[in-house]
Structure formats: C-alpha cells, structure tokens
Amino acid sequence: MSSISLNRFYCMKYLQSILLLSLMLVAVHIKAQDTLYLNDAIRIAMERNHDIRVVNNVATISKNNATRGNAGMLPRLDVAAGVTYNINSTDIEFSSGIPPTSENGAETQSYNASLNLAYTVFDGLGNIYNYRKLMATAGLSKLQAQLTIEATLIQVLNFYYNMGRAQQQYEVAKKALSVSKERRRRAEVQSEFGRASKLEVLNAEVDYNTDSINMVNAALTIETARYNLNYLLGEESTRSYIASMLVNIDETMQLAELRQLAKQNNVAIKISQANLNLSELDLKLVKASQLPRLDLRASYGFNQANNEVGIVLKQQNLGFSGSLSMSFNIFDGHRKQTQHENTLLSIENNREEVENAKDQVERDIQNAFATYKNRLDLLAIAEKNLSAAKRNFERTQELYRLGQTNSTQFRTAQLNLIRTQSNIIDAKFAAKLAEIQLIYLTGQLIATPQ
Q1: 204-218, pLDDT tens digit by residue?
Q2: CATH number, residue 366
Q3: Among 144, 197, 355, 449, which residue's Cβ finds the most Cβ atoms within 10 Å?
Q4: pTM for the complete prediction?
C-alpha cells in the first residue's frame, strides 16, 4: 500500500474514532434526560423569568400609586409639637413710666402642640382627573407587562419547539446512521470476498461519516435551544432535559374570526388606546388648572411661653383656628396656553398611533394567516410524499441486498427518504409556530394552553 493510501486510511480511522466517541456521548446524554412539558416550561417562565418579574413589579408599583390620596382627593392631617429654650442677658425699657429692668441669664421657655388639617376643596376637578390618570397609568403598566410577558412566551415557545424539532431531526439522523453503518459493514464484508471494490467501501465510509456529522450537529442544535430556553426560564444553563415531541396543530383557524379577535384583544392596540386616554386626561388637567383653586386649612393647638423678665411672665393659648383661601392665576407667561396646544397635538398623535396599530395588526394577521396556510399545505404535501419515499427506499434497499442496484442508487433513495422526513418535521413545527403567532396577534397567548 502506498504512503498516500496509508495516510488516507489512518486519517479515515482517526475521524471515525472521533465521530464514534462523539456519538456515544451524545446518545448517552440525550437518553438520560427527563422530559420538560410545554405547560411546565410556561409556568416556570412566568415565575422565574427576569424580564417578567421586573415588569410585574413595575405594574404593581403603578397599581399601588393609584390611590385617592396620591391624587390629592383626601385631606392632609399633621401633628406638630415643639419646645424652645433661650437664656439671654436682657435689658428692657418701657414707655409708660414703668421702670426699666435688666437681667443676666434670663430664661425663656415656649411649648407648642397642634393638630393641622389641609384640604383642597376645589381645584377645577383636577384631583379627580389625577385619580383617573393614576388608574389609567396602572392599566397601561399592566398592558405593558402583558406585552413583555407575551414577547417572552413567544421566545419560550420558539426555543421549545425548535428543541423538539431538533430532537426529531436527531432521530432521523440516527436512523440514517444505522442504515449507513449496515451498508458500510456490508461493503467491507463484500470487499473481503472480492465482491465489492475499494471505491465502494470508501463511498460507504464517507456516507457513514457524513451521517455521523449530521447526527452530531443535530445534537448541537438541541443543546443550543436548551441553553436559550434555560435562560428564558431563569434556570441554570446546565439543567438538562428533553422537550415533548407531541405537536398538536389547530387546522381550523379562520381569517375573519382572527381579525375580529385581534381588534378586540391585541395588546399593541390596547396600549395605543390607553395612551390616547391618558393624553385626553392630560387635556382635562390643563383645563382644570385654569380654574380658581379653593383651599381649607384648620388647626387646633396649644401654645405656652414662660419669661423671667418683662410684663408678661407667662402666656398660654389653647384653641381652634381656620382659614379658607382662594387663588386664581391671571397671567403665567402663556405657559398654560402652550401646554393646552401641545396636549391637543399629543392627542392627535395618539389617535394616529391607534389607527397605525390597528393597520399594523391587520397586516400582521394577513401575513401570519398566509404563512399558516402555506405551512399546512407544505405539511400535507410532505406527508403525501413520505409514503412514496419509504416504498422507494425499501425497494431500493432490497435490490441493493440482492446486488441488483449499485450504492449510488441506494444512497440516492436513502437521501430522498431523509429529506422527506426532514421536510415533514420542519413543516410540522413551522405550522405550529405559525399557529402560535396567530394566537399571539389575537391576544390569546397567555390564556390559551399550548
């Protein structure tokens, strides 16, 4: 055997050893894992995903802020108390014939305590509009949280189903490798008895190695999808499991019903409408600030002062005081007028945003439904083609065993079967993801079990 042939032989054996070791590790790793079901993945993401936890906290903060007290609708009640102590050298001269007095180190003490009430009786209904705005802001925060949750769950579903797709592709590659391994063994045996050429053995070896690489790559795709899914689930990156490969596709979706659901429930549309409502409340607040303001203040308190020198050595007061005041701005440099004009423009912009959101969702529904129907059609065609591909492969395999066809024809039939099986897997998972996209656009993602 020439040196070139020996080098090729040893390189082939080295590559074969590496692939064999990789396949053993992959097979053991995949077989030893538990199954993570989709509903469990969604539940874990809802509980542990960092983005979801943050937006839920933000929504809770907005909800906590939506109180009548924060809106200024309730009175303010304060208790105040104080003690003052002074020591001074004092000289006093009186104007009414009272002789002057002088004292070194004269002490003065004063004590006070009061209960104070402040309440805005009328501010142009601004406190009522403030309360409505706080409530609307809380609602908007809840919608924004829902938008983030849905976007996160879309990623969870994509990575989960990508992992399931990769697992099924792995099984196809595993079966293909088993066939190629048997073909290689058969070629080696036939070569020993002079019934097959070295070229046929090498072709079988190359095809076996190719199928081995495909299987290793499929395993890598599984691992990548799992790492991405673990991140979204807030899990340790090393947590290992397999996805359930059961895929149920709803093939009964109708475009008219989807469009109606999207108009009613799509979160993007709801957010744009909520922003419009907020801008309309801002306009009411601007108008309220242009009206008179009426404030009530009341106090019940105690005061006492003790002096060592002077005519009044002790004074004590206990009682009630109250005031009602009105204020009205006559001129503020046209700030309120500018604010009024800008608020009107903001309302107009938000109305445009509402219409734009509706148009975008309508477009997305149309595109997503077309994709959904296309994926279902591709799946139906691929499933019809599978039976023919199987019969063709089985017939070619039998002829190959009988020596009535060559390895090239056998490999072509095998590749056709592999390609058909892969097409079915891809079409099935693509159809499922298209269905999920429609559910997302119609605002049903969180409430709908997958």
Answers
A1: 889 999 999 999 999
A2: 1.20.1600.10
A3: 144
A4: 0.82
